[in-house]
Design brief:
Distance between the termini: 30 Å
Number of strands: 9
Strand content: 15-25%
Shape: elongated
Number of domains: 2
Helix content: 55-70%
Strand order of the largest sheet: 2-3-7-4-6-5
Radius of gyration: 32 Å
Number of helices: 16
Length: 413
């Protein structure tokens, strides 16, 4: 063992004459541990919210969407077959998208109508996961059944079995006047995806019923695709442009819902910077610890210098001492943060029961439990940045120790 490492470790382990230095060292360790643990837990929760948001959005939306000019696609079977030839496309489903108004008992609400084929839609979306007590199979062609979002049904004050009137914006031209096109639908199911945008405005009908109401014939609005890897959607969308013949528009989920994920990512980055300041403050407590240690050990430094120790060796001694304080705090923070992030689904309910409160009330938030998604890449970045901060905090006190003049230090000894 090099003597610089040996002396640095001994200075850290030895009982100090000045107990205040030991107290400051302990505070530095605890501060680094708390800062690192807080960083890991907060970023894991942010990752969990991002994952939950992505799951809820893509449970209703699609990874990639192919639509025709003017909102109509005629040869959708050919488009679906060409898209399915891509090795990363798992499923394809046609859809009809149109706007309308739902009326029930003098209450009118605007809605986005989506005509779907239940069997095909199950392969590209997770509607059955959000259905209340039924499945999408309740949509039968020609029966004019409709599945409403929970918030939309609540605003209309309708229940399963009630009949609502769907008014299409395209009117019927008659010699007398232009009459609105309307059709009565029976509410056969409700879904709650946990996204207000969908729960309050989306209505599902069978694709053949939507085609009949909106007079589309055999045409559809487009084709929705599900991929093996949702993060490959931008690349797959670009590759499909050269594979699919005809005039089509291809978009992916990162474009249609970019605002949600950009907001979460910005919040995550800001929280990382804010919480990193906690680690920085704790790390720079090491400066005061080592400055006092250098003052306390001036005579020892002078003796080492007279025995032939170079200024660089003296610097290494105190760098080892400061780095060890940082490493101990970092290790404690990593252990505590990882353990808490992996068991947050147990810890948070226990705290809620203990204080008889609820952090995310079900009446207010759709996500009523704190999700956690521990990503080891984040842990690695936190550990690396925290370790660099602790090393930077040791440089000035170590340099000051290397500048101690042996003659001045031993003058009064």
């Amino acid at each position: 063992m090099r003597y610089e490492l040996f002396i640095g470790l001994r200075y850290t382990r030895a009982k100090r004459r000045n107990h205040f230095i030991s107290f400051i060292s302990l505070l530095s360790m605890c501060g680094i541990a708390l800062g690192v643990a807080a960083l890991i837990v907060v970023l894991s929760v942010m990752n969990g919210f991002q994952k939950e948001l992505r799951t809820r959005i893509l449970g209703v939306a699609s990874h990639v969407q192919i639509s025709g000019p003017g909102g109509e696609l005629s040869a959708w079977q050919q488009v679906a077959e060409e898209a399915m030839k891509h090795p990363e496309v798992r499923a394809a489903a046609p859809y009809v998208a149109a706007q309308g108004m739902l009326s029930y008992d003098q209450t009118v609400r605007g809605t986005l109508v989506r005509g779907v084929l239940p069997d095909a839609e199950e392969k590209v979306a997770d509607f059955n996961r959000y259905m209340r007590g039924s499945s999408m199979q309740v949509l039968k062609p020609g029966e004019f059944g409709i599945i409403l979002g929970a918030e939309l049904a609540r605003s209309l004050q309708v229940f399963i079995g009630d009949k609502v009137t769907l008014i299409a914006p395209q009117g019927l031209v008659t010699p007398a006047a232009i009459l609105p096109r309307l059709k009565q639908f029976k509410v056969v199911g409700l879904f709650e995806a946990g996204m207000y945008e969908y729960d309050s405005s989306l209505a599902l009908v069978h694709m053949s019923d939507a085609q009949a109401l909106y007079r589309m014939g055999d045409r559809v609005s487009g084709v929705r695709l599900k991929l093996d890897d949702l993060f490959a959607a931008p690349r797959v969308a670009r590759e499909l442009l050269s594979r699919i013949h005809g005039d089509v528009y291809i978009t992916d989920w990162t474009r249609s819902h970019a605002n949600f994920f950009r907001a979460v990512q910005i919040e995550k980055n800001v929280m990382f910077i804010i919480l990193l300041l906690i680690v920085a403050v704790a790390a720079f407590n090491i400066v005061s610890t080592l400055v006092m240690a250098v003052t306390d050990k001036e005579s020892d430094i002078a003796i080492l210098r007279t025995l032939g120790a170079s200024p660089g060796s003296i610097m290494q001694v105190f760098i080892v001492q400061g780095a060890l304080i940082g490493i101990i705090g970092l290790a404690l923070g990593l252990a505590g943060g990882i353990a808490l992030a992996l068991n947050i689904d147990v810890v948070v309910p226990a705290i809620e029961r203990l204080f008889n409160t609820q952090f995310l009330a079900r009446e207010v938030y759709y996500i009523s439990e704190l999700p956690s998604d521990l990503q080891w890449r984040d842990v690695g970045v936190i550990a690396a940045v925290s370790f660099v901060l602790t090393l930077l905090a040791t440089l000035y006190p170590s340099w000051r120790a290397s500048r101690v003049n042996p003659a001045e230090a031993l003058r009064y000894e």
